[in-house]
Amino acid sequence: MKTKKILMIVAPERFRDEEFFRPREVFEKNGYNVVIGSTRLGKATGVKGGDVKVDVLIDGLSADDFDAVVISGGAGSKTFLWDNQALHRLLNDAFSKGKVVSAICISPVILAKAGLLKGKNATIFDAPDAIEEMQKAGTNLKAKHVVRDGGIITGDGPECSYDFGEEIIRALKE
C-alpha cells in the first residue's frame, strides 16, 4: 500500500508563500497527505504573511515515510536550510530509495550541497549566490521554469509553482 504522503520542507521564517501553498494545493487535489517539516516546530511564516503549522522537525525523519520530499524557496531557505546536514542526509536517503526529491526558487542549492546535482540538469532562481553554488556543485543549469532529471525536480520561482507541483505528481505516478 502506497503511503501517498509528501514531506514539504519550509524555512521557519521568510519562505516564499506561493512556492509552498500552490504545490501543496496540487498535492492535496491529487490525494496526497502533506506533512510540513522545518528546523523548528510551531508556526512558519512566509514573506507575504502566510503561515503554516510545522508538523515535524527535519532531524530524525526517515525517507521511508514519504513518497517525495519537496523544499519550498524564499530568502529563509539560505539562512535555515542550505547547510542543514540533517536535510542533506534525508535527501540522499530519499534519492537512494528512488523517491522524488525536489526544490524550487533558491532551494535547489540544498540539493546541490547534498551532492545530488553533480552532472544533473536543474534550474534555479536568478540569484548570483545561488547560481554560483549550483555551478560549484557541477550542475547543468537550464533556463527553464521547471526541470526534471530522473527523480530530481527543480523550479525557478513563484510563477512556476503550480507547474512544479504538477511535475512532481507526474513523477510520482510513474
Distinct helical segment count: 6
Radius of gyration: 14 Å
User: How does the helix and strand content classify structurally?
Assistant: alpha/beta
Strand order of the largest sheet: 6-3-1-7-8-12-11
Q: In what range is the share of β-strand residues?
A: 25-35%
Run of helices and strands: EEHEEEEEHHEHEHEEEH
Number of strands: 12
Give the CA-based shape: globular
Helix content: 25-40%
- Runs in which pLDDT lies below 50 for 5 or more consecutive residues are none
Intertermini distance: 16 Å
The largest sheet, given as strand count, sense and whether it forms a barrel, is:
7 strands, mixed
The residue-averaged pLDDT reads 97
Task: Describe the protein.
The protein starts with a strand and ends with a helix. The protein has six helices and twelve strands. By secondary structure, the chain is α/β, with parallel strands linked by helices. The chain is globular. Helix 1 packs parallel to helix 6 (161-173). A hairpin with a 2-residue loop joins strand 11 (146-149) and strand 12 (152-155). It has a seven-stranded mixed beta sheet. A three-stranded mixed beta sheet has the order 2-4-5.
Q: What labels would you give this structure?
A:
single chain; 174 residues; alpha/beta; seven-stranded mixed β-sheet; three-stranded mixed β-sheet; 6 helices; 12 strands
